[in-house]
Amino acid sequence: MAFRTKNLFEKTTKLVRSYSSDKIYTHMSLTLNEQTGIATLELAKPPVNSMSFGFLSQLAAAVQQSEADKYKGLIITSRSSGVFSAGLDLKELHHPDSDRILNYLRRLQDVWFQLYDCSTPTAAVINGHSIAGGCLLALSCEYRVMVNSFKIGMNEALVGVPVSPMFIACMQSVIGQWEAEKALLVGRLFTSEEALGVGLVDEVVGGKSEGVCKAEGYLAGFREVSARARGLSKRYLRQEVVRDLVRRREEDVKKLVEIISSRGVQDSLGEHLERMKNKK
Ligand SMILES: CCCCCCCCCCCC/C=C/CC(=O)SCCNC(=O)CCNC(=O)[C@H](O)C(C)(C)COP(=O)(O)OP(=O)(O)OC[C@H]1O[C@@H](n2cnc3c(N)ncnc32)[C@H](O)[C@@H]1OP(=O)(O)O
């Protein structure tokens, strides 16, 4: 098989350099299979692929690259065998600097718009727990394959932060209003098998390599389809969600900063971080 590794994760320096541009990825690697034209984006920010500002910036660059280089497909998965992504970096949300949190949330919006609205066919191979922002990342792809015995969902209710409109819109569009309402209001995390039952994921498999094969199968289904027509159709199908969120993005982000900075939310976040520290 002819693989061209655009970005290699160097164990010593943890630096990854793209050979086709000057982008440097430290938290993920992007590898193109030249035979199929399908690229794999492997998230590699130990221990839990939490979404820091830097992580989001690199994710945005990788999605941009997939569009610019006209990949036939993009598979997002994790290098960790136990965690796909733990979601937003809770340290970015706890006691935030006001400018930084504003920029952080704007960056999150930008990445989401780029991924959700990108013309490249996308699939997630969820080979570990996928919590809150991690679930959003998977839901923004077109197809989801999940390895068994992990958890996926949006736990904001348990963390003590409101679920943002972007997260709600994605969940609703995949599992419908009633299932979304039942899950989001209690912060439910689904097992892989339960997620399949409500349509949150499309397939459940025994391991990562089987998951990658299934994802490649989904993406190969577009081989005979005009990429341009397909890309436009995807945009039209998703435009209602995008348009609404674009219209209110500044209003949403300002409101979220206000909510996140409030005493009650900061106390809840602090308790959540403390619980995680003490669980060992
Ligand atoms: C257009 C309109 C848009 C509007 C704007 C959009 C903006 C939206 C803003 C929304 C704001 C609020 C929304 C938040 C959504 C989120 O994503 S909040 C994050 C929620 N995530 C979690 O609660 C996950 C918590 N983590 C876990 O449950 C577990 O870590 C795990 C199941 C993922 C993995 O378990 P395990 O393998 O046992 O590892 P641990 O020992 O628990 O953790 C290892 C290590 O990682 C640290 N860590 C874990 N999660 C996070 C995280 N999310 N952020 C930062 N750090 C994390 C954990 O503390 C451990 O650290 P130490 O080793 O103890 O130092």
Automatic annotation (TrEMBL):
Which cellular components does GO assign to this protein?
mitochondrial matrix
Q: Name one GO biological process term.
A: fatty acid beta-oxidation
Query: Does Acetylation appear among the keywords?
Result: yes
Q: Where in the cell is it found?
A: Mitochondrion matrix
Entry annotated with the keyword Disulfide bond: no
Please indicate which superkingdom the organism of origin belongs to: Eukaryota
- Output the SUPFAM superfamilies linked to this UniProt entry: ClpP/crotonase
Q: Gene3D superfamilies, per this entry?
A: 2-enoyl-CoA Hydratase, Chain A, domain 1, 6.10.250.170
Task: Output one GO MF annotation.
Answer: delta(3)-delta(2)-enoyl-CoA isomerase activity
Q: In which pathway does it act?
A: Lipid metabolism; fatty acid beta-oxidation
InterPro entries given in the database record: ClpP/crotonase-like_dom_sf, Enoyl-CoA_hydra/iso
Q: Which reaction does it catalyse?
A: (3Z)-octenoyl-CoA = (2E)-octenoyl-CoA; (3Z)-decenoyl-CoA = (2E)-decenoyl-CoA; (3Z)-dodecenoyl-CoA = (2E)-dodecenoyl-CoA; (2E)-tetradecenoyl-CoA = (3Z)-tetradecenoyl-CoA
Alphabetical keyword list: Acetylation, Fatty acid metabolism, Isomerase, Lipid metabolism, Mitochondrion, Transit peptide
Please describe the quaternary structure of this protein: Homotrimer.
- Tell me, in a sentence or two, what this protein's role is: Key enzyme of fatty acid beta-oxidation. Able to isomerize both 3-cis (3Z) and 3-trans (3E) double bonds into the 2-trans (2E) form in a range of enoyl-CoA species, with a preference for (3Z)-enoyl-CoAs over (3E)-enoyl-CoAs. The catalytic efficiency of this enzyme is not affected by the fatty acyl chain length.
What PANTHER family does the database record attribute to this sequence? ENOYL-COA DELTA ISOMERASE 1, MITOCHONDRIAL (PTHR11941:SF45), ENOYL-COA HYDRATASE-RELATED (PTHR11941)
- Name listed for the protein in its UniProt record: Enoyl-CoA delta isomerase 1, mitochondrial
Q: List the lineage, top down.
A: Eukaryota, Metazoa, Ecdysozoa, Arthropoda, Hexapoda
